[in-house]
TrEMBL record:
Gene3D superfamilies associated with the record: Butyryl-CoA Dehydrogenase, subunit A, domain 2, Butyryl-CoA Dehydrogenase, subunit A, domain 3
GO molecular function, one term: oxidoreductase activity, acting on the CH-CH group of donors
Coiled coil: none
Family: Belongs to the acyl-CoA dehydrogenase family.
GO cellular component: plasma membrane
Originating species: freshwater metagenome
Keyword terms: FAD, Flavoprotein, Oxidoreductase
Nuclease among keywords: no
Domain Acyl-CoA dehydrogenase/oxidase C-terminal per the UniProt entry, residue ranges: 232-392
InterPro entries per UniProt: Acyl-CoA_Oxase/DH_mid-dom (IPR006091), Acyl-CoA_Oxase/DH_mid-dom_sf (IPR046373), AcylCo_DH-like_C (IPR036250), AcylCo_DH/oxidase_C (IPR009075), AcylCoA_DH/oxidase_NM_dom_sf (IPR009100), Mycobact_Acyl-CoA_DH (IPR052161)
UniProt protein name: Unannotated protein
Amino acid sequence: MSETAHGVSCRVADFRFSTEAESFRVDVLEWLSTIEPELSAVNSDPSDLTGLDEKFERRLQADAGSRGWLSLPLEFQAVFNYEMARADAPLIDTAMTLAGAAVEKFATSEAHTLVGESMRAGLVEACSAYTESGAGSDLTALATTAVRGSRGWILNGTKTLVTGAHKSDWCVTIARTDDHASPREAMSMFLVDMTLPGITVHRHRTMNGWTLDDIDFANVELAPEALLGIEGNGWRQMSAALGAERSGMFWIGFARHVLDLLSQFVCTTTRDAIVLADDPLVINEIGRLEADWSAAELLSRRALWAQIRGVDDTLIPAMAKVVTTELLVAIAQSATEIAGQSGLVWAPLFGGEAPAGAAADGRFAWEFLERVHGTIGGGANEVHRDIIATILLGRVGAS
Ligand SMILES: Cc1cc2nc3c(=O)[nH]c(=O)nc-3n(C[C@H](O)[C@H](O)[C@H](O)COP(=O)(O)OP(=O)(O)OC[C@H]3O[C@@H](n4cnc5c(N)ncnc54)[C@H](O)[C@@H]3O)c2cc1C
């Protein structure tokens, strides 16, 4: 609360990070500077989303986990995610991010608690597998089943488009456990040990060479304690878990990184004897992107502010998701256009020496192919637009 000049108390929304969070940022940046040489071709694995080798990723996660950085309060988590994205460090899609919220919120046994602790400590990898080929935006159409067997549950079905299943020790999934209930009452959530017999992971190349995975569950025998939370409550649990961190500050971090690369590129590249940064069309475009970045960054901080205070965990985060992911697409598009032919020469992240003539070491072409993913993963933007419209029109209708 603050006092106005007229002595009236008012609640002012202040979206800035706290002093504590800014001082945490300094610690994180210092740590990043020590690992920067290792974020390079020496640890390259272009078949993984991070572009980096699993062993290296596990080592970094354990280091970050030992510092308590994988289970931070929302504000600190946003700072951490922003800086990791800006540095291309493989610490965004951790077990905690992908599955930790579900495990921690809905743990019902000692075994769940132990898995949750190992996620916090960065000692395991995990994935969340909800999507199926016939059920993406509309998860009520899920066909995977879990039926009670003599020793627990028998799981059958195929999940698709799963991030990081090939390296996961654990998987949070949902399956139909009741044939007769309405879809939202028919699902239950399970914590699955990925080493169990009957589980096969198939890796499929994305446009950028890294893989998204399918998981086949074929008569997988789950112990009774694999059930996470309450039987029949899987739908609500999944919605709660997906909403755990939606400010999306990592998108803003990626955008900052690519905009910085673009600025560097136009300041150091000459075309027809003119430095690109002196071309009014180029500088106008970069100015527009910078203005859009500032607006998106503020919106993301507003989403975070709202989530921390529990005043709106749906509308503003949905807006932030749409704006930030589409900003990334726009930056990638402008970067390739400004760079011209050299912007079309592609190289994987951390791939070592880029092909001759590649602008920004092939990063602009990589971004061009990559950023459409963000508009689909985490809920397609069209669906988020539906949510935004429904809430806003609902409010207009109600007023
Ligand atoms: C990079 C990436 C990572 C992913 N990681 C995971 C993961 O780890 N775990 C997991 O379970 N899933 C994951 N997914 C899957 C993701 O959640 C789905 O792709 C997403 O929910 C959309 O589902 P779909 O692909 O089946 O498309 P559909 O639902 O079939 O949609 C097709 C098109 O129709 C539009 N559409 C659908 N419904 C509506 C509507 N109501 N109003 C307007 N338009 C609509 C969509 O916007 C889209 O353009 C990932 C996807 C990507 C791209």
